[in-house]
Backbone:
């Protein structure tokens, strides 16, 4: 399953970078996130509650921010599981100054993931659109925080 998008924030690169590295901000923007606890430097234990198709459940796993190149990019690794299945994913997050506005930031996310178990069997056709919807909701919540704090 592929996941990609480019999103523009009306805030400077350094500001958006700081938000994308703040576990409290990430947890508050991630749909269904109940907890994001530090496990070490740039590693977190996540607890999520999600529903896809008729299957809902609790999931736990780890999130790691690797290969950081502040304030330009990092690699995000996600590994989680629950009764209904598992998810593993990797994405590269890149920040650039927007060509249209030097005070704005373009964030590009490009990644892929694997989903298995009951959730994959039942919700296979919906997984791509649900994943994209979750990414879009995360970005919308993050954009709101970025633009509120930068004004």
Residues:
């Amino acid at each position: 399953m592929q996941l990609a998008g480019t999103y523009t924030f009306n805030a400077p690169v350094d500001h958006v970078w700081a938000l994308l590295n703040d576990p409290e901000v990430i947890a508050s923007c991630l749909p269904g996130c109940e907890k994001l606890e530090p496990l070490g430097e740039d590693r977190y234990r996540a607890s999520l509650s999600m529903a896809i198709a008729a299957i809902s459940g609790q999931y736990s796993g780890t999130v790691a921010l690797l290969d950081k190149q502040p304030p330009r990019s990092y690699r995000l690794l996600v590994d989680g599981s629950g009764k209904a299945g598992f998810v593993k994913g990797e994405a590269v997050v890149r920040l650039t100054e927007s060509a249209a506005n030097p005070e704005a930031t373009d964030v590009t996310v490009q990644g892929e993931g694997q989903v298995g178990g009951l959730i994959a069997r039942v919700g296979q056709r919906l997984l791509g659109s649900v994943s994209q919807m979750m990414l879009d909701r995360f970005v919308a919540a993050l954009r709101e925080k970025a633009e509120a704090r930068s004004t």
In short: The CA atoms of residues 29 and 140 lie 8 Å apart.
